[in-house]
Amino acid sequence: MKKQTRFALLFALLFLIVPNVLAQDGARVKGTVTDEAGAKVVGANVTLRSLLGPQQSTSTNQAGAYEFASLRPGLYLIEIRAEGFAAFTSRDTQVKNSDDVVIDVQLRPAGISENVIITATGTLQRADEIAKVVSTLEADELDARDELTLAEGLRGVPGVRIQQQGSLGSLTSIRLRGQRTTDTSILLDGLRLRDAGDINGSAASLMADLVPIALNHLEILRGSGSTLYGSHAIGGVINAIPEDGASGLHFEAGFEGGSLSTFRERLSVNGGRDNVGFNVGVHRIDVRSGVDGNDEYGNSAFAGRFHVNPTQATTLSAGFYGTISNARLNDSPFPLAAAFTGSQPFPKAIEGLTFHPDFNNPDQGRRNRTLLGSVKWLHLIDDRWSYSVAYQRVATNRRNYNGPAVDPSFAPFVGFEFEFLNINRGTIDTIDARSNLRVSNSNTATFGFEFERESLFQHSEPSFNFFNNTTDRQRTFAFFGQDQLSFLDDRLQIAVGVRAQSYRLSAADRPGALQSRDAENSVTGDGAVSYYIASTNTKLRAHVGNGFRAPSLFERFGEGFLAGAGTVRFGDPTVRAEQSISVDGGVDQRLAGDRVIIGVTYFYTRLQRVVAFTGFSTDPLGLGRFTGFTNRPGGLSRGFEGTLESSLWHGAELRTSYTFTNSDRALTSGLAPEYVIPRHLFSLFLNQRVRKLQLTFELNRTGEYLAPVFENNFPFRQADLRFEGYTKADVFANYDVRRSDRMTLTLFGGVENCFDQRYFENGFRAPGAQGRGGVKVRF
User: Fold this and answer.
1) Which one of 72, 169, 672, 741 is at 20 to 30 Å from 265 when CA atoms are compared?
2) pTM to 2 decimal places
């Protein structure tokens, strides 16, 4: 075992062997939950969170009461969620030995929720404390909107561009603040979910299959997040927080169907007792026709979380997430002659004139499998010190294939049909160890270590490459630290952090001249500050930091076959990690007794160094390469986000946002507009509950954008076309029928793209108006 690996394991072991020197104490936190009319709220989920350590959950009884007993001294807060009400979060509460703390809560009808945020600093913060820009999406909201995929659930979040290229299951991208889809880091309970077999090592190849299942809520951090969360967090971080089991035993089952021969079945069960809890869910989605009648797609997804609290100071949890999907794929759109003959540098995308949309290919498709498993140990040593150790494995298996068949209707557009099979299998093992120390009541320090080992196996048929069936490997070691400071009765919040990361490489094919050379290290840091003006309910905030993306195994060792050149090396083992610098600042204003929140944010991100595929006049490696991956300066993105949230009338929640983005990519001759990023994004969301009926209306306007379209015959020219903006509006309704004290039946239905807008994403035709409806039962 190499020295670095031994050191990594020793570092993690030190976290595990720290003794628990304090005995259990008998403090209690209890209270009653009511609504605005004073009626008891039965079955509300109540979570007691230690600011540094484990959490516990329970439900209110028939009297609306809850209780947590045998608590250790420390700082705690209460979070309460109940269907039909806005989430509630208490202020920090100091619990001492043998205390009997009473926290009675009155819930407001559905509206602006008072959320606990974890992703901003890695520790618990109330929304009014955070200095970074974080949005939250509750699982109940995604359910009310009947969102089939995680990506569609994120549509409408400020600064977030969602693109689905065709029917459900086709290529899907999530871009934050004008950045590339590879600049978005996807987390599950704080640990990265990505594909070692992806060309950029990102989660881009998995995004189409991710579904919201066994989920509590989503946290979307916009701006650099690499100090705590490492690679790919240049544009931001999307953290999926899993649901804990509630007390008792609860089941939910549902079925729905609709347009495009779309069907979904789902089943979930969660429960808990004393110090044990679990939550497990299974989803199945089928699309049997799709946009052109032949876009079949199936996805089986499953997820769950189990936890046990051996003591009030410790939590052992395990989680899993998986998808198994099969999708039929269309042939790509291509430009027509008019795209090259006009005088405009970026011709307008006109169906049948400047481009031909995607069309059916009867035997082209993909099969993906993603399996994730994790285990985490969390220990509160005393009221000032906690630590956690987590292990996670992500295994992916992707098969892309095409056969000889051609749809006769489109035969004139197919120059030749190339049969192939590509298999990419990736594994990523991660060990994350971190500790939180409250140095004082106004100072919390975090320090940690991360070890990651990834491997990539590649197979292709036919193979023109001598190094087919090869496995490449990469290991990374990272140390990070963060210090959070608060002053002026917690009105002034400051956080600073730094991360250092190194790489060790192992390849199936590595020229002798490069055997002794490893990649250079990465160092990043960030800082954030916020100041809350209590007299006016105003928060001022600013954040500056680096983001980075570690080069993928393909970028380091990739090889391929080019006509006339044979096997060509594309990769560079010594290529440096991508790095960015980003700045954002803004103000949040609360009005009308916290029933209205207005926010304005300016953001700027510059890609200081990227990994780009380009041609060479002189190969920097001296290996005779004429094309491949190398470092060069990237582009920049700047703009602003404006948001408004309100709950001015009973049972209503209104959110609206506008994002302006000016994003450019770097060329050797200067800057050019970034692909796929519109300058203007507008969203409006309205949720209204009237007794047993819940109505949601969502409208998203995506402005004009530029996208490349490629010819499918030699010489494979590229046309940069201007695609028109479009408006996508969705409306859904849910009606609850209470069958007994324990059983509730929900009838739901609605229409996506209810204005039946005809639009294209990069030349791929999007679905028109789609109706869906179904039934759910909870007991």
Assistant:
1) 741
2) 0.91
